[in-house]
Specification:
The chain contains 14 helices and 39 strands. The protein is 21% helix and 31% strand. α1 packs parallel to α2, α3 crosses α14 and α8 packs across α9. By secondary structure, the chain is of the alpha+beta class. The two termini are 52 Å apart. It has a domain of 299 residues: Rossmann fold (3-Layer(aba) Sandwich), CATH 3.40.50. α6 links the parallel β34 and β35. The strands form 9 sheets. Strands 32-33-35-34-36-37-38-39 form an 8-stranded mixed beta sheet, sandwiched between helices. Strands 3, 4, 5, 6 and 7 form a 5-stranded antiparallel beta sheet that branches.
Length: 724
């Protein structure tokens, strides 16, 4: 059997590389794309005949698959070869805007001020703290640093570095952190003694998805995931204990993932079970680590809520009166049984009622006030509620299109709430608002090196009509002196899934496009959370096609209004946004000049039929379950891989990563292989794979910029703006 398997692999390798070898000597002049061997596999379901010629590309360790990936990488390199100097110039240009020596605004917790810094030439930040000084616990700039974690040190023995959090113990003696060394989201849990720097791995945690300290500073709760990367178990680890870690709770429902948190006052630990349309929570007093985790409310299908405990009360964000949630202040019932009863819910004080036009997104509770993040009309507003007496205050913003979100808060007694602000023309800014007065203090604007002048750029908010008449917003930014009367190159970005808003945000790298006369636009399409919860619900499951038709309406609207024309319009999306641009391209290949699909979810039906893959079963609530004929029909209508057809396609750049555990590399590989067989046009179709990263791409800041420079070079070449 092993010999037969080996023979088949060699046969595929011969079929794969024969046409490639014949054309390879001419690569310097005209690179020839690799031709993947066809190995037909019948994937028919519900009587709908589908033959998958490239199913075999899933076998990562198969020599033929490895050969094909290397051939694709070589082809992409050959295409880029004439443009390497331009890529390097773009990289240096983007790098030149980065303040290489930089630090975050310090934030106090207890007797320390916490921050991070990064130095010239470093790829990663160093997390550190300094002792607070004086009776008012001021920040002393001259105080010696205590390094918590230096990611540059971790990177010396790893090709990829990503943290999923830092948690300092309540006694300030230790720091717990999780590190992923591949990009596959396999986080190894470490505990470090801050004074000595002694570091040890919690041996039983190959997959530590989240962690919190109990009040004793010896007990560490953490979450583990299974082979399908579903976060399903809560474990308790005790420092110095001789026995094994204790499994505290297991979530059996494959639609749910576990998450951990701690209240800002440090008194309550919170365990959430989260599905796409249902949530429930358990709480535990932080000083009773071996106690029983009490259910807040019984789980009920479709009921979503979040808890923010403070003292013996909590703020409850719940959808019991409508999809956009309301916010209540309720006491927590002591003793056994659920923390909240129907009587307590009924008696709760309503801070924010449910409204169809506004969604309650996030909440933070301090000793004296609650800070609430509300989305209304496509923009975020922050509202401050006194917890004793007095009227709420709104924090207003002047720009039409911006992003304003509550930041991580560190101190329950803080007199101010911290939030992050930026827009398409305003760099990331750190603000604090006085809880009592609402007065704003600007703490930092992220520097953009090279003399960035925001007055040179302008942003707009447009509305277009979708296919069903729904009005869809678009945000745009461009350089004023580059704005011409007629159409010009335009990059349209979209996402439109999971209820995640695509807020207008600044990116210094994007200036390399704007300064060359490119307009950048964001389509705030249904399926995202840009206009509240209903906006999301109207773009999922059986209504998912709205996401794609909204995006096409955005593109067509920009053409109709003279901002651009099809020969100058490039679309870009990643992950579920890769699905978006793939589906939109199948529907209107004539509308776009080029497509950039990053880690694209394009093989929808095959992925959703394979319950062994990460994310599949829990995603049934987002996309549907293709094992059901009616829900299969939803996906069959838009799945990019399954709807490729003979047509003159735009140029395509499909970017992926070998260790991606969320959207496996083979989705892009199969899509590109099949696209080349039906494409009647002559535009390039590239498959660009990162062989050391995962879903988010390169982890180092300069490595990530190089990837961006490479992507921009492809776009600029298509626009005729790349000067080699």
């Amino acid at each position: 059997m092993q010999l037969l398997s080996c023979w088949r692999a060699m046969a595929r390798l011969v079929v794969l590389t024969a046409p490639l070898a014949a054309a390879w000597p001419a690569l310097a002049d005209a690179p020839t794309p690799p031709v993947a061997a066809r190995q037909p596999k019948d994937v028919t379901v519900h009587g709908d005949r589908r033959i998958d010629d490239y199913f075999w590309l899933r076998e990562k360790d198969d020599p033929a698959v490895q050969a094909h990936l290397k051939a694709e990488a070589a082809y992409a390199e050959a295409w880029y070869q004439p443009h390497q100097a331009a890529v390097e110039r773009l990289f240096e240009e983007m790098k030149g805007r980065v303040q290489q020596r930089d630090s975050a605004v310090p934030q106090r917790r207890g007797g320390f001020w916490y921050s991070s810094r990064i130095d010239v030439g470093q790829q990663y930040p160093v997390f550190f703290r300094t002792q607070a000084a004086g009776p008012q616990r001021q920040l002393d700039a001259q105080a010696p640093e205590q390094v918590l974690v230096d990611l540059n040190e971790l990177a010396k023995t790893r090709k990829f570095v990503n943290l999923n959090g830092l948690a300092v113990s309540p006694d300030d003696q230790r720091v717990a952190y999780g590190v992923d060394a591949t990009g596959a989201r396999d986080f190894e849990l470490h505990v470090r003694d801050i004074a000595s720097g002694e570091d040890r791995v919690v041996a039983s945690t190959p997959h530590a998805d989240g962690f919190v300290w109990a009040a004793d500073s010896r007990t560490l709760f953490y979450i583990r995931h299974n082979e399908a990367r579903r976060s399903h178990q809560l474990w308790r680890h005790q420092l110095g204990a001789a026995g094994p870690d204790v499994l505290v709770h297991e979530e059996p429902n494959e639609l749910f993932n576990l998450t951990l948190a701690k209240s800002l006052d440090g008194r309550t630990l919170m365990l959430g079970s989260i599905a796409k349309d249902t949530q429930d929570w358990r709480v535990l007093p932080a000083d009773q680590p071996e106690g029983r985790w009490r259910e807040v409310l019984p789980r009920r299908a479709g009921q979503e809520y979040a808890v923010t405990p403070f003292g013996s009360e909590m703020l409850l964000r719940i959808n019991d009166r409508g999809v956009n949630f309301r916010l209540l202040r309720v006491p927590m019932k002591p003793g056994a049984g659920p923390v909240l009863t129907p009587a307590l819910l009924k008696a709760g004080r309503e801070l924010v009622p449910h409204r169809d036009s506004a969604m309650v997104e996030q909440v933070a509770a301090f000793r004296t006030h609650a800070a609430v993040q509300v989305r209304e009309g496509g923009s975020v507003k922050l509202r401050l509620f006194p917890l004793k007496a007095g009227a709420p205050r709104d924090i207003a913003f002047q720009e039409l299109a911006y992003s304003a979100v509550l930041a991580e808060q560190r101190e329950f007694d803080a007199p101010r709430v911290r939030f992050a602000y930026n827009s398409l023309t305003t760099p990331p800014s750190t603000y604090e608002a006085d809880l009592a007065t609402g007065k704003l203090a600007l703490l930092k604007v992220q520097p953009v090196q090279g003399g960035y002048d925001a007055s040179l750029y302008a942003s707009e908010r447009l509305w277009v009509s979708g296919a069903d008449g729904t009005r869809v917003p678009i945000s745009l930014v461009y350089r004023k002196d580059k704005r011409r009367a007629g159409p010009q190159p335009l990059l349209l970005y979209g996402y439109g899934s999971y209820g995640i808003p695509t807020d207008p945000r600044f990116a210094s790298s994007r200036l390399s496009l704007l300064d060359r006369g490119v307009i950048f636009a964001i389509g705030h399409i249904r399926g995202g959370g840009d206009l509240g919860r209903q906006w999301y619900l109207d773009g999922k499951l059986g209504k998912k096609m709205n996401t794609f038709t909204d995006f096409i309406a955005c593109a067509q609207g920009l053409v109709d209004r003279g901002y651009t024309q099809p020969g100058q319009l490039i679309i870009h999306g990643g992950s579920a946004g890769g699905l978006l641009v793939g589906a939109a391209t199948n529907l209107r290949p004539d509308l776009f000049k080029a497509v950039v699909a990053q880690v694209p979810f394009v093989d929808v039906i095959n992925t959703m039929l394979d319950a062994s893959l990460p994310l599949t079963t829990e995603e049934y609530i987002e996309w549907g379950n293709p094992n059901k004929a009616d829900e299969y029909a939803w996906m069959r209508a838009y799945s990019p891989y399954d709807n490729l057809k003979p047509a003159a396609y735009p140029a395509v750049l499909a970017k992926t990563a070998i260790n991606d555990s969320q959207v496996p590399y083979w989705e892009a590989a199969k899509y590109v292989a099949r696209l080349r067989t039906v494409n009647t046009g002559s535009q390039p179709v590239l498959f660009d794979i990162n062989m050391t990263a995962g879903h988010g791409g390169a982890s180092g800041r300069f490595d990530a910029l190089r990837e961006t420079a490479r992507t921009y070079a492809f776009m600029l070449q298509q626009w005729g703006l790349l000067h080699d």
